[in-house]
Amino acid sequence: MMQSILLVEDDIKIARVVKAYLEGAGFKVRHFDKGRDAIDAVAKEMPSAVILDLMLPDISGEEVCQELKDIEDVPVLMMTSKSSEEERVAGFALGADDYIVKPFSPRELVYRVKAVLKRAGKGDITSDGPTSYNNGVLIINGQTYEVKKYGDLLNLTPTEFKVLHVLASYPGKVFTREELIEKALGYQFEGYERSMDAHIKNIRHKIEDDPKSPSIIITIYGVGYRFSGKKDD
Question: Which residues contact 212 (CB under 8 A, 6 or more apart)?
Answer without folding.
Answer: none
